[in-house]
TrEMBL record:
<keyword id="KW-0812">Transmembrane</keyword>
<dbReference type="InterPro" id="IPR003838">
    <property type="entry name" value="ABC3_permease_C"/>
</dbReference>
<dbReference type="GO" id="GO:0005886">
    <property type="term" value="C:plasma membrane"/>
</dbReference>
<feature type="domain" description="ABC3 transporter permease C-terminal">
    <location>
        <begin position="284"/>
        <end position="402"/>
    </location>
</feature>
<feature type="transmembrane region" description="Helical">
    <location>
        <begin position="283"/>
        <end position="303"/>
    </location>
</feature>
<keyword id="KW-0472">Membrane</keyword>
<feature type="domain" description="MacB-like periplasmic core">
    <location>
        <begin position="18"/>
        <end position="254"/>
    </location>
</feature>
<feature type="transmembrane region" description="Helical">
    <location>
        <begin position="323"/>
        <end position="346"/>
    </location>
</feature>
<keyword id="KW-1003">Cell membrane</keyword>
<dbReference type="Pfam" id="PF02687">
    <property type="entry name" value="FtsX"/>
</dbReference>
<comment type="function">
    <text>Part of the ABC transporter complex hrt involved in hemin import. Responsible for the translocation of the substrate across the membrane.</text>
</comment>
<comment type="similarity">
    <text>Belongs to the ABC-4 integral membrane protein family. HrtB subfamily.</text>
</comment>
<dbReference type="InterPro" id="IPR025857">
    <property type="entry name" value="MacB_PCD"/>
</dbReference>
<keyword id="KW-1133">Transmembrane helix</keyword>
<protein>
    <recommendedName>
        <fullName>Putative hemin transport system permease protein HrtB</fullName>
    </recommendedName>
</protein>
<dbReference type="InterPro" id="IPR051125">
    <property type="entry name" value="ABC-4/HrtB_transporter"/>
</dbReference>
<feature type="transmembrane region" description="Helical">
    <location>
        <begin position="376"/>
        <end position="398"/>
    </location>
</feature>
Amino acid sequence: MSLFHLLIRNIWHRKALSILTVLSVTATVAFIIVLSLSKAGVEQGAEKGYGPFDVVIGAVGSDTQLVLNTFYHVGAPTGNISGNTLDKVKESSEVDRAYGFTTGDSYNGYPIIGIEPEYFMTRYGDQRLSDGSLYSNTGEVVLGAYAAKMLQLRVGDTFYGAHGLVEGGHLESEEEEEGGEHEEHGDDAHSIFKYTITGILPKLNTPDDRAIFTTMDYAWAVHEGADHNKEITAILVKPANLLSAQQLRSELESINGVQVVYSSKAVADVVNLVDKGSEIVDMITILCIVLAAISILLSLVAAASERTKDVGLLRLLGKSRGFVWMAMIGEGLVITSIGLVLGLLLGHVGGYLLQDTLFSYAGIQINPLQWSLDHLIIAAGTIFIGLVASFVPAIRMYRMDPLTLFKA
């Protein structure tokens, strides 16, 4: 009997315990893969989350809250600042590009953001829209690719927004559109201000995919009567050079109620906070790895106890100590390898199933097809653990006398 056939027969003979051991390895590997994909998504999102806008200006408050709301569309804004601040920033010689940013309304949980359409050229370059064209008039909007997909909206559709990031808003029906009348769904101005979709953005792989964009003055048009005090939520600034950010900060520090934040620093603070929180997850991961190793060890120890007489017979028939050694080691490696392959597949399937949820709630973009150095480390570590767990029963069988094994 060849070594391979012996391994398959032994594994199949104790298929229940073998399957449980494989599932233990599979679950551990899949869990680690999902964590690896999520971590890579956070790091990549942090790297390109704010694009070329190294400075963001907004109301005094939490700098991380300002950056998260402005670039990642998470949480509430820190407040509003005067529109005159934008004029002052644009006049500064330290600024290459500056765009005002207004937000606070939404449609079915997707934020409506007012910003000049030139923003897309500055951040993403000359990219063609998936459909339609950019907005130019008040009330016209373009949708991020993910928002358009989830809301099932197309160019030409119209809707009514809602105040705040709530599951509100109203899609105009055909009867309302043909009749020219709109039944108010609330008692505020949002229920009568209609948005018309002019375009769908291409997939950008940033949080902008889950936002709705329109002209910066939409907030002033919705809230009539506030025209005398045209406030904005934030200003995105692309400095002229490396030293310009510090110079610009010095220029604006004297303005009451305004803070100037370095985007990279605020994002780094968030990533560091996530890393600290992931320490608990790392502890859970280590525990899962230990349990998987113990599962492999117990499975092989139980197998060795059952096969003592079989191994003794093989030795008496002339099989070498090395054959017995390889049989026990090989069984552990085969079980571990099967669990590893299934775990890799399950981990990427899990990443695929979770990508929309994570992107919708946290702006974390998971690429379920991504393969990296982490995968090689995970694979090598899994095989190593399986090999180590196989040593104990293999050494026991290797050292025993064949006649003693048979009499046992």
